[in-house]
Amino acid sequence: MTLDLAKMNTFIPSDFELVREQGETDRLQLSNAVIRLIDTPAGWQVNAEYRGEFGGLFPVQCHYTPDSGGKYTFCLCSPGEVSPVWLGVIVDGNGRLTQVVYQSGILEPERVSQLLAQVAALHRLNTPATRVASLLKAEVAV
């Protein structure tokens, strides 16, 4: 399966779900294709769900976290049954705060990379998750 940005951006939510249904290997390939498109900030790591580790809500769910153990995580989630659009979500370390800070009908790697860089910069400044969410959610188009 060859997956690039142009192909992924033609997918409708059911296409992402179809890849998920094809099994772990295809799901991992899809997640890895997404990860390759996004710039992970220095000192951060990314983990992709491919078995249900993060609850299995989205066909692609990538968790970006600081290596040093962060106060929050940035999750990039694909369209599927739960959402018809790509979502970027801030989740605090306690799992109490979940705030959408990005949504788009197509995957925009440059925009997501920029947003992730902002999250990393705010994390370096010890900005609480609630403040990060309030600063970034203003940019979400509804």
Structural class: alpha+beta
Given this structure, which CATH class is correct?
Alpha Beta
Strand content: 15-25%
Shape: globular
Question: How do the SSEs run, as a string of H and E?
Answer: HHHEEEEEHH
Main sheet: strands, sense, barrel: 5 strands, antiparallel
Strand count: 5
Strand numbers in spatial order across the main sheet: 1-2-3-4-5
Classified in CATH, the superfamily is: Plasmid SOS inhibition protein
Mean of pLDDT:
91
CATH topology: Rossmann fold
User: What is the CATH architecture assignment?
Assistant: 3-Layer(aba) Sandwich
Give me the number of helical elements: 5
Q: Level of helix content?
A: 25-40%
Domains (count): 1
What is Rg?
Answer: 14 Å
Question: Runs with pLDDT <50, length 5+?
Answer: none
